[in-house]
Amino acid sequence: MTVAMSDHRVLLRPDDLEPLSPERTIVGVFNPAATRLGDEIVLLIRVAEWPAPVGSDVLLSPRMEPRDGLPSWVVDTFPRNGADTHDPRVFRLPEGRMRLPHLSHLRVVRLAPDGGTVLDVSTVPELLPTEPWEELGIEDPRITQVGDLFYVTYVAISRHLGIATALMSTRDFRTFTRHGIIFTSENKDVVMLPSRLEGELMAFHRPMPCSSVGAPSIISARSPDGLHWGRHRLVLAPRPGMWDCVKVGAGAPPMRVPEGWLLIYHGVDVASSGSPVGTYRAGAALLDAEDPSRVLARSDEPMVEPERAHEVSGFVPNVIFPTGLVADGEDDMLLFSGAADEVTTMSRLSVRSVLDHLGVRTT
């Protein structure tokens, strides 16, 4: 049974923003990272831009290339014949290489304290792809505050390093410092624990083993500095025959509750004609307060699943992808998600209702 919401709204759609250049089209504003900063809520949203079409027999893939010391938009072309295009997010060439039909960057969104009103959307040059490991785009950020520093993990894509996770940090969301790749390809859905454990940082990451020996699962890791990670342990794996049977990945950074750490995650089931990449749903897990790699409770049924029009249809149908979580008052939380890889949504839920969904009693 899904968890009831006291509020749900679409915050941003592609038509709400202007592309970086008029010859491009925005196809998605989605997968928002979220945090509180003073009296406001700040989001980092992924903005995916599509190049102008040149013909039905050609596939286009944009990338960033340095020219005269500045990043420039370059569009590579490939013959459509023989390419696998069943997944709208990517296409695969006959020799097996994968490319993206769009290129993503991040923008800063400031919301009113209630999380339901957009005050401002701004483009920050430091959130555009500029490094070689970002040439095919930067995607799906997560924000974790540890002390007075905000860590931003994000997916960095390139032809040479594949799909990797990199790290930035900021104190004000106006200037950002890049720290480079922290989990090499193929690895994504990295969130950090908003508290040190025994002086160490903790992260949850999701390797994607091409060998298929293991399924894409949530793994914990420890680090003394946020750059060097080890002590990896399995936390959550897909469950055969259930709503999260194909792969799982961390959603928002865990939230501390009296019972432990509350982790919102996404789970994916088997692809079908109506869901070409599987249905993406949101679930929850309660992790041990002292050892967050230990799971105390987990959603038997989805906590949130695609039901509304903007979730079941769009650029990628039947997708809810939770990426931001902010506490609101004593019992409410605001869950920020991407829907159908196209729009940004906000949902208000009570913490108690999520714990009840997990079968957790008040301590």
CATH class: Mainly Beta
Uncertain spans, ≥5 residues at pLDDT below 50?
none
Oligomer: single chain
For the report, how would you describe the main beta sheet? 5 strands, antiparallel
Beta content comes to: over 45%
| Level-2 CATH architecture | 5 Propeller
CATH-defined topology: Tachylectin-2, Chain A
Radius of gyration: 19 Å
Query: How many individual β-strands?
Result: 25
The overall pLDDT average reads: 95
Count of helix runs:
2
Total number of distinct structural domains: 1
Shape: globular
Q: End-to-end distance, in Å?
A: 23 Å
Structural class, please?
mainly beta
Classified in CATH, the superfamily is: Glycosyl hydrolase domain, family 43
Q: H/E order of the elements? A: EEEEEEEEEEEEEEEEEEEEEEHEEEH
Description of the molecule:
It contains two helices and 25 strands. By secondary structure, it is mostly beta strands. The protein has one domain: 5 Propeller (Tachylectin-2, Chain A). β8 and β9 form a beta hairpin. It is globular and about 60 Å long. The protein starts with 6 loop residues before the first strand and ends in a 5-residue tail after the last helix.
Q: Characteristics of this structure?
A:
51% strand; single chain; 363 residues; Tachylectin-2, Chain A; mainly beta
Give the helix/strand layout:
Layout: E1 7-12, E2 24-37, E3 40-51, E4 58-67, E5 70-79, E6 91-92, E7 98-99, E8 103-111, E9 118-122, E10 138-146, E11 149-158, E12 162-170, E13 177-183, E14 187-192, E15 201-207, E16 218-223, E17 230-236, E18 247-250, E19 255-257, E20 260-268, E21 280-287, E22 295-298, H1 309-312, E23 320-328, E24 332-339, E25 343-350, H2 351-358
Antiparallel strand pairs: 1-25, 2-3, 3-8, 4-5, 6-7, 8-9, 10-11, 11-12, 12-13, 14-15, 15-16, 16-17, 18-20, 19-20, 20-21, 21-22, 23-24, 24-25
